[in-house]
Design brief:
Layout (H helix, E strand, L loop, with lengths): L1 H22 L1 H8 L2 H5 L28 E3 L1 H11 L1 H21 L5 E10 L6 H7 L8 H7 L9 H12 L21 E14 L1 H69 L4 H35 L8 E3 L17 E6 L5 E8 L10 H21 L5 E12 L11 E11 L7 H68 L4 H33 L13 H8 L17 E2 L2 E2 L28
Parallel strand pairs: 1-4
Antiparallel strand pairs: 2-3, 3-7, 5-6, 7-8, 9-10
């Protein structure tokens, strides 16, 4: 009986092997291949006849024909040329330069030209003109004596002068007694004025300090442009590798689905032969069907990651896109970024123990950080403004001059009709009593300076923490990447053995499912480690220009939380939804300033074949 049973199992195993080879040769070659073969694009999973309703439709993130190819360097170049953040920073530089010119203009001579025309409608001097309209009555001795005084040879000089003064008070042909007042502006109907006004500041301590204070914002704005360009480069790098990682996770999920399909077909064949029970068939069906939601979710995550990348490079969200830089390409880098490297330490068996030596290509010193340099310029600005507030007590000396050419013609003037006015003066002003306004300005300026110095010290401390965090993140990423190389090879080989044992009937489906989950986890860990390593190297290469991490002092806590292994539902259960962040729903593939995205974990669960609730 035992011999016949063994022969029956052997015949059934041979039939199952031939059927599996004929049904899914492509999928089997993929699972039995090396790590690179497992990372290749899996063929569309075949759906068994028993479950036609579980057919998976391709999402929009799948590679489509006529898709635009985009490398990491190209993505960064396009994003930098179209980034709104960079343009805003450049506008800030232009504004700061204008403020510097405004501040320095107070030291240059000020020269303005003026031109004016005035038409007189009515004036107080009209009364003199009315006196000429009254006819002279020569019969009246008083008026004749006034306008035509008689001077004989015996008159004294005083009498002659009195007679001359009386004659000047009489009307003449010009309309004003003795003098043509219209020619000097009194009562003239038309007035034309041409002039130049000149001023030069000789001394003003407040102007000097303000001109010095205006230069610091300009330097800070120039640093901000560099910082924004580095931030855009880092954001695009994260988004690009997030999309590449999402592609790899989709490939892994589809490969696992293909493996589940192959196991289901083998179980169906052996069930027909009679070597396996209905319970084994149900386990295979549930395991296969539970993999479908994971594939759908991976594709949705990929779509969202691609949307984020397209938004940064200003592409249409519906435009097909194909990434050409692989997540494991250690030589890929944005233009102008020198990647850091890490030397790992292994034990006698080749297992990575730690990452010791880091070869940095960028200066991580505190004083080189862009945020620290910007804050240092703020301190200089507030120090100059304090000097400006103190200088309000000093006198201000200004040289002024005015030059005018005026004319009062009855019609259009000629150059000969213009008269000249020209004066030069020096003015000095000293504040004597301002109601403690100057004292208040000094107190405000001193408080601003103290605050700026304190913020500079705080920024230095955060810069030290941020640099150490970046170095440790790179060291951990390098160690995880090196350790994943052997793990993937071992997990792939273990699954091949488990699959062979299951076909031969000497192992259970639970053992095969556990090995499949272990292989899937190893591939996902390797892809995640590759992504984290590339992002960490770029971050450390941009560390001098990058702004400080928004996590601040809580960066280490955030990173330690991210290093935990969140559990993703096994094939026997649905996967939980993502946690909602305080500022809105979390988006898979969105850049994180301080911590890498969470690595999906596939636990080795013995309940893999249990039916879903």
């Amino acid at each position: 009986m035992r011999t016949s049973a063994r022969c029956g199992r052997g015949v059934a195993a041979i039939v199952a092997m031939l059927a599996a080879a004929s049904f899914a040769p492509g999928a089997y070659a993929q699972s039995a291949g090396t790590d690179s073969a497992a990372h290749a694009a899996a063929a569309a999973p075949a759906t068994p006849a028993a479950a036609p309703s579980t057919t998976i439709l391709l999402a929009s993130g799948t590679r489509q024909p006529n898709a635009s190819s985009l490398s990491l360097a190209q993505a960064v170049r396009v994003a930098l040329s179209k980034s709104e953040a960079v343009r805003i920073a450049q506008a800030g530089v232009l504004r700061a330069r204008g403020e510097v010119d405004e501040a320095l203009s107070n030291w240059w001579p000020q020269l303005t030209g003026t031109a004016a025309y005035t038409r007189t409608l009515q004036t107080q001097y009209t009364a003199l003109a009315k006196a000429t309209a009254t006819p002279v009555d020569t019969a009246r001795p008083s008026q004749v004596a006034l306008c035509s005084p008689r001077i004989d040879s015996l008159s004294t000089p005083a009498q002659r002068q009195a007679a001359f003064n009386s004659a000047l008070s009489c009307p003449n042909n010009n309309g004003f007694g003795g003098i043509n007042f219209a020619s000097v502006g009194f009562g003239s109907l038309n007035q034309y004025t041409l002039g130049l006004n000149f001023s030069q500041t000789l001394f003003n301590g407040q102007v000097l300090a303000q001109s010095q204070a205006a230069k610091s914002p300009r330097r800070a704005a120039e640093i901000e442009v560099t910082a924004q360009r580095a931030q855009v480069t880092y954001d695009v790098t994260q988004a690009y590798y997030d999309a590449a990682l999402a592609d790899r996770l989709v490939t892994i999920a589809e490969s696992t689905l293909a493996q589940s399909d192959r196991t289901l077909k083998q179980t169906q064949l052996t069930k027909r032969v009679g070597t396996q029970s209905e319970f084994d068939l149900l386990q295979a069906q549930v395991t296969r069907n539970n993999q479908v939601p994971i594939v759908i979710q991976r594709r949705g995550d990929r779509d969202i990651a691609y949307y984020r990348l397209k938004q940064l490079v200003k592409l249409s969200l519906d435009a097909p896109l194909q990434l050409t830089t692989d997540v494991e390409d250690s030589t890929a880098a944005p233009d102008g970024v020198r990647l850091a490297s890490v030397e790992t330490v292994t034990d006698s068996e080749g297992v990575v123990m730690a990452a010791e030596t880091i070869k940095l290509t960028a200066d991580t010193g505190v004083n080189k950080r862009s945020t620290v340099r910007e804050q240092a310029e703020t301190v200089k600005e507030n120090a100059a403004l304090l000097r400006a507030a103190n200088s309000e007590r000093l006198p201000a000396v200004v040289l002024t001059s005015q030059y005018q050419r005026v004319a009062y013609p009855l019609n259009l003037p000629s150059w000969a009709d213009f008269l000249t006015n020209w004066n030069v003066g020096v003015g000095l002003s000293v504040p004597i009593f301002t109601g403690r306004r100057i004292k208040g300005d000094e107190m405000v300026a001193q408080a601003n300076l103290d605050e700026a110095k304190t913020r500079l010290q705080q920024t230095r401390e955060l810069a030290v923490l941020d640099a150490r965090t970046a170095i440790e993140t790179l060291r951990e990423a390098q160690a995880a990447w090196a350790a994943s190389v052997g793990t993937v090879t071992q997990a792939t080989r273990a699954y091949q053995i488990a699959e062979l044992r299951y076909r031969e009937g000497i192992s259970t489906q639970i053992e095969l499912t556990d090995q499949r989950i272990a292989q899937q986890q190893a591939l996902a860990n390797r892809a995640q480690a590759a992504r984290n390593l590339q992002v960490a190297r770029v971050r450390l290469g941009l560390i001098a220009d990058l702004p400080l991490s928004s996590a601040g002092a809580g960066a280490s806590a955030s990173q330690s939380a991210a290093q935990g292994n969140p559990t993703i539902a096994p094939p026997g259960a649905t996967q939980p939804s993502q946690t909602t962040a305080p500022n809105g729903p979390s988006i898979p593939g969105s850049p994180s300033p301080s911590a890498p995205p969470q690595t999906p974990t596939y636990p080795a669960a013995s309940q893999a074949g249990s039916p879903a609730p």
